[in-house]
Design the sequence.
């Protein structure tokens, strides 16, 4: 697998601190993708987002996604909390979990992700972890609620990940919040 990953993130207009954060991490053929949205915006949201990313960075790739999310939940206690989607890709199999409203969209992949209600660091009713298979030329997009849920990968079919991020960001950006999108083309 030869991934090509790009992301774009901006704070709410008028803010300097971004409450959204991204992690792209490789270990051999394994790939970890995380998009985190600290509740609200500004410095306190940014602090929570950084804590979530730090928790994911500390995890071994062999750890299950469920355990990674539970560890992040524990690490975020006492913070404002975050919504997050975490994907770990090993051997063309994706294991994913989402708590809150960080969306996942894909093409040439079957990832039956159901968002788990709650806030990492505050309360999660039930973690829903899914597994899916990546087909040839699979593309995954993960984005925060700073973009409209109308984001469609069909709009940017044929665009490189960085151009696709920019195009979707420009078309679907909501100005009342921080906004982030990550797009990964997962190769043949």
Sequence:
């Amino acid at each position: 697998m030869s991934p090509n990953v790009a992301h774009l993130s901006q704070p709410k207009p008028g803010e300097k601190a971004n409450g959204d954060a991204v992690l792209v991490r490789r270990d051999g053929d394994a790939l970890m993708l995380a998009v985190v949205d600290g509740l609200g915006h500004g410095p306190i949201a940014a602090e929570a987002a950084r804590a979530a990313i730090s928790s994911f960075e500390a995890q071994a790739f062999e750890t299950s996604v469920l355990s990674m999310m539970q560890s992040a939940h524990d690490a975020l206690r006492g913070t404002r909390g975050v919504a997050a989607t975490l994907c770990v890709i090993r051997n063309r199999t994706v294991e994913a979990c989402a708590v809150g409203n960080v969306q996942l969209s894909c093409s040439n992949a079957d990832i039956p992700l159901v968002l788990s209600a709650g806030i990492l660091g505050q309360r999660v009713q039930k973690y829903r972890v899914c597994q899916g298979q990546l087909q040839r030329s699979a593309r995954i997009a993960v984005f925060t609620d700073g973009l409209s849920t109308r984001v469609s990968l069909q709009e940017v079919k044929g665009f490189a990940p960085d151009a696709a991020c920019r195009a979707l960001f420009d078309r679907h950006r909501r100005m009342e919040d921080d906004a982030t999108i990550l797009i990964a083309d997962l190769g043949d």
